[in-house]
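FAQ

Q: What does a record look like?
A: Structure on top, sequence underneath. For example:
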């Protein structure tokens, strides 16, 4: 029997952050709730997902704080994307 592997954060965004009339509907991989995002918020999540996959999420969070902070509710959504990413030992980053 083959183990199921969670999708990468970028893959999750490709599959579960769909564009609808200029906004994006994002499915939270932890709570399974949907969130309506602006294009800018979706871009921030994409940048967060890339940072997660490049193992620089902590540095990305610092950059966001230095740039003025997270847009409302986006930090929690970025953290849920981070929960999808596992290092070779099998634990989530962060």
């Amino acid at each position: 029997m083959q183990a199921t592997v969670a999708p990468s954060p970028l893959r999750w965004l490709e599959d579960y952050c769909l564009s609808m009339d200029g906004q994006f509907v994002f499915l939270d991989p932890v709570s399974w709730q949907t969130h309506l995002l602006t294009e800018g918020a979706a871009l921030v999540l994409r940048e967060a997902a890339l940072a997660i996959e490049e193992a620089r999420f902590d540095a990305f969070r610092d950059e966001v704080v230095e740039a003025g902070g997270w847009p409302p509710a986006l930090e929690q959504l970025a953290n849920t994307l981070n929960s999808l990413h596992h290092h070779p030992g099998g634990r989530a980053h962060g």
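Q: Is there anything notable about this one?
A: The two ends are 30 Å apart (CA to CA).
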